[in-house]
Amino acid sequence: MLSSCVILWGLLLSTAAALVAPQPPSEEVHGLERRQTCNTATNRQCWTTSPAFNINTDYEASWPTTGVTRSYTFTLTELNTWTGGDGRTKTKAMLVNGVFPGPTITANWGDRINITIINQLQTNGTSIHYHGLRQFNTNIMDGAGGVTECPIAPTKSKTHSFIATQYGTAWYHSHFSGQYGNGVLGPIVINGPASANYDIDLGPLAISDWYLGSINQLAARVMGTSNPFIPGFPGSPPNSDNVLFNGKNINPAGAGGSYQKFTLTSGKKHLVRIINTSVHNAFTLSMVGHSFQIIATDLVPITPVTVNSLFVGVGQRYDVIINANQAVGNYWFNASFSAGPCGISNNARPAMIFQYSGAPNTNPTTPGTAPTDARCQDAMNYVPIVAKSAPTSSYSPSTGTTLNTKLSIDNTIARVFWPVNGVPMKVNWNNPTLEYVKNGNVGSMPANENVISVPTANVWTFWLIQNNSSIPHPVHLHGHDILILGGSPALATPQIPGNVMRPYNHAVDGPNLRTTNPPRRDTTMLPAWGWLLVAYKTSNPGAWLFHCHIAWHVSQGFSVQFLEQLSAIPTTMNLNELTANCNNWDAYYPANAPFLQDDSGI
Ligand SMILES: *[C@@H]1O[C@H](CO)[C@@H](O)[C@H](O)[C@H]1NC(C)=O
Ligand SMILES: *[C@@H]1O[C@H](CO)[C@@H](O)[C@H](O)[C@H]1NC(C)=O
Ligand SMILES: *[C@@H]1O[C@H](CO)[C@@H](O)[C@H](O)[C@H]1NC(C)=O
Ligand SMILES: *[C@@H]1O[C@H](CO)[C@@H](O)[C@H](O)[C@H]1NC(C)=O
Ligand SMILES: *[C@@H]1O[C@H](CO)[C@@H](O)[C@H](O)[C@H]1NC(C)=O
Ligand SMILES: CC(=O)N[C@H]1CO[C@H](CO)[C@@H](O)[C@@H]1O
């Protein structure tokens, strides 16, 4: 269903000859007709002319009003055993509508999206978060369990409804106790303009690490101290068993499974929407004989930049254009692991195939060369199309908020944590943060909820994030794009625990900060032993999370939350909408739940 053929429906007329996709439902064709005036294969920067929406529109300021609603129903099920797309049996699969990855949410820029979530999991609550979507004035639809809502109890359902104010590639995933590692995730595609022309939209390519064991059992071992996966290193993660491309790959251990294939049309330019939906593994992508023209980082369109390889951290997205300008044939598309500690798989050479239309059904023969090691760092040369700049002189370590993280072991209870500023977060499912806001008692929130600041409206906020660990962390902010003003350099050699990180030093690093239109996105890499300085402007009232997107680490507490424009929250959204779902949850948890919260809860 997510295979090679999701075509931007607006292309139906202009590229009828190249059309290989199933016809989209007529309702959605109708929805596209309402806006489709100028977005063609030779003018992708345009979206509509009257009113004018295009690649230069600041989507934080305005977006189209389409009057169209896209409705989805997601039923979550739990299977004690399930045969995955590599032909092998996984224990405890949790699936959306019975498939992995879950169905793609598709909409046009400016549409309303309604999603009804039905929880048919055996014992777990759930909540679905729409990663990267700004949720402007709709924080209550952010789907962060214990923060913006109570989890949805088993047998119960809940509907989220919000406007797609941005466009591009995102994804949804469960925000309940690392549950997405069992399979609760899927792509989001919001059709809109693009900063470079392409002929065919091949749709999302979700690349996921895949674990045959129950993620809950693996996480218990990652959190405990007695039996770490790497002897002597408490907190160390397991190797993934495989890496799946839109849910498919061969079985690296033997027979079974098959390669994912995308079809290329010779002479055409193809848009591929790459999403790293991993729990832990980060990869560097490359394709034999072809380069990638990057046109968006997360949901932010950028000046196109062409690369031969691309590092993608967990939660990150890249929209890339692949030009089918080579001989008709089959080409490997490879995910390579960095030498640094950003994950490893029992499949040493994860790959899929790009097959030119007309090529034989055989595997590629040219192996290609592995890309230069990106050391799990983001490139910093991405220039957003809509320029945003942070004030040059406003940051100093004393005016910003410093978030320090390091691995921490509590020997009395034999648990490993990732506290931020000494506190491993733990939310209260029965009393989500917005409930405290509704009741006017945020002052009494427990310290372990890790509420770090209460910025007012339209204030530049700076965070210095320091990482006293050998592991790079993909850090994600809900509800905002962050400006990445600076970071420590990639380290040339692997570091070992006990090495002292290079501290941020304002006198040395300050002049090098990039405040004029720096890279901007919603998920970025905190370098190993390093630091990162990010900024955002408060403009979106709500209770928002900032966390590491390695599922084990967020379960182990690597998260903070902050209340933005506190007094505007109750007037911007209807907090009474919390009540019915929380009543269902309170009736279930803890009295009727067989398992209790044993992690951060998010
Ligand atoms: C979408 O959800 C909103 C809010 O619950 C509701 O008012 C609206 O009727 C829904 N639209 C559709 C088409 O179901
Ligand atoms: C969630 O479900 C998994 C798999 O059944 C189980 O191991 C875990 O304990 C459950 N957690 C909660 C909090 O219900
Ligand atoms: C996904 O991100 C993780 C962690 O940042 C990284 O180890 C992995 O290689 C990425 N995967 C891909 C396919 O880019
Ligand atoms: C790409 O993947 C294929 C299949 O696993 C492998 O044979 C080839 O060596 C890989 N190439 C690179 C550069 O990793
Ligand atoms: C980093 O953590 C280690 C281990 O806890 C500690 O010995 C060291 O002093 C810390 N370094 C810094 C710069 O905080
Ligand atoms: C939690 C932690 O260890 N944080 C440290 C990170 O590094 C900075 C800069 O050296 C220290 O000041 C923090 O104590």
Structure in a nutshell:
Helix content is 8%, strand content 32%. It is mainly β and 602 residues long.
Can you lay out the helices and strands and say which pair or pack?
Layout: H1 26-33, E1 46-49, E2 52-54, E3 69-83, E4 89-96, E5 105-108, E6 112-120, E7 128-131, E8 157-163, E9 168-174, E10 185-191, E11 200-210, H2 215-223, E12 242-245, E13 261-264, E14 269-276, E15 283-287, E16 292-297, E17 300-307, E18 309-312, E19 317-323, E20 330-336, E21 351-356, E22 401-405, E23 408-410, E24 415-417, H3 433-438, E25 460-467, E26 473-477, E27 482-487, H4 506-509, E28 520-521, E29 523-526, E30 531-537, E31 542-548, H5 551-555, E32 559-564, H6 569-572, H7 579-588
Parallel strand pairs: 3-6, 5-10, 11-14, 13-21, 22-25
Antiparallel strand pairs: 1-2, 3-4, 6-8, 7-9, 9-10, 11-12, 14-19, 15-18, 15-20, 16-17, 16-19, 20-21, 23-24, 25-30, 26-29, 26-31, 27-28, 27-30, 31-32
